Amino acid sequence: MSNPLVRKLENFVRLSPEEKQALEKIAQPTRRLGAREDVARDGDRLRHVNVVLEGWACRYKQLEDGRRQVISIFLPGDLCDPHVFVLRKTDHSLGTLTSVVLAEISETAIREVALQYPRLAEALWWEMLVTAAIQREWTVSLGQRLATERLGHLFCELFLRLRAVGLTSETSCEFPITQADLGDAMGLSTVHINRTLKELRAAGLIRLRGRQLTIPDFPALQAASLFDPSYLHYERDPSVLDDD
Amino acid sequence: MSNPLVRKLENFVRLSPEEKQALEKIAQPTRRLGAREDVARDGDRLRHVNVVLEGWACRYKQLEDGRRQVISIFLPGDLCDPHVFVLRKTDHSLGTLTSVVLAEISETAIREVALQYPRLAEALWWEMLVTAAIQREWTVSLGQRLATERLGHLFCELFLRLRAVGLTSETSCEFPITQADLGDAMGLSTVHINRTLKELRAAGLIRLRGRQLTIPDFPALQAASLFDPSYLHYERDPSVLDDD
DNA sequence: GCAAAAAGTTAACCTCCGTTAGTTCCGCAC
DNA sequence: GTGCGGAACTAACGGAGGTTAACTTTTTGC
User: Which positions on chain C have an atom < 7 Å from some protein CB?
Assistant: First the structure.
């Protein structure tokens, strides 16, 4: 299967064979990690951009007293550290949720590709801005949505993001993370995550067993979670002719 | 007093007189709004970057049923919409909290300045990345911090951000927003904001009366709120010689 | 294939925060 | 000064979600 970064960016701009090739060349697997390992720690100086090729990772922050917040979830095709170029130290940690394969791209490699292929530069901008939009939507979820809405909203988001890189079937996808991690991401206790999952299952909105999530009726879950996908900005630029 | 955008960026890079002049030239006041007005609405197509010159503004999102989340607070010197260049529609609204003076900068003006002055381009990158870091920290606050910590943390953040543009005295600053807006930003009800303010006042951590906030003992408030300012990335680049 | 560890599940109790419904205070217009 | 409207403040009650402490199921290691 082709490179998930290529598949992801093609949701925004149409890429030529050379552009795809250039991207694939710099996004080759360079590092493999097990589940629950740290890629980088709060305060580290970063040397390259990490791209997830396989598995799930996350940004997180740990408070002095141990409380942990998962700030973002990274799926195959996601760039983890676009800030590497300007800021000297990270202000958060980067860890794996499952076992993960990463591409570590150097600053110069990214700069060169962006200079040579302006459309790739634009696509990378898009990726960065969508990441920011997702972060804003998480702010809304944590601030306003109830537990059921919050979880349902996350399922909708992750399903669409996985679909964008070809990792879903019609109604289901892998869902390999623990309820404890879900809790850290949603600002809820594990116990309450469990209660809420039970409720969503009872309402027939999801099935979740053994790392497999099924959303039998997406519009229903969407309505129950007040999910509006426009923040994902997945519509392809209409000014780019689509001729395959 | 000089331009707040210039003052803000100088917290990161040292700017030459020409660089300052170029920045000031494109960040001139072009629009004045009253309190509680919308600058742009969810779904709008944006044509320029808005920079706050005076007053406080915010990003917010309103759910179908009326619940409102303030996603970011913008102070003088802040850029509101760096995404204008790539994404076609906003996914959130932009509104004023107080009366506001804006500079509306066109895409081309920003591009030209960034091309001509690489150090300004870098400074604008920094500003964008710090904005993202602030967003991540809000995620942590909403997900993990209790009401007192959450409010205290916000006070610490806003005080430092205002100080970076010269809008504080030794221990106090203007604080012109209502408890209702504070609630929408912190994901708390107005009633609970009020209760929590009472508690912070009783603990001697803040004074807040008539749009004026005083933090008599910053380290004390910082400790009580688990506030670590490193995410604001305010240390100036040491590779840039500082010779005034 | 078995033991051990990790993850999922549930119940009882408690607390932080929301809701409702007020009252009080303050700024402003006239 | 008086009257008005918005913001600040308070009390009583209720509910969403946290905590503790189990028990069960699944996964992992050897």
Answer: 6-12, 16-21, 26-27
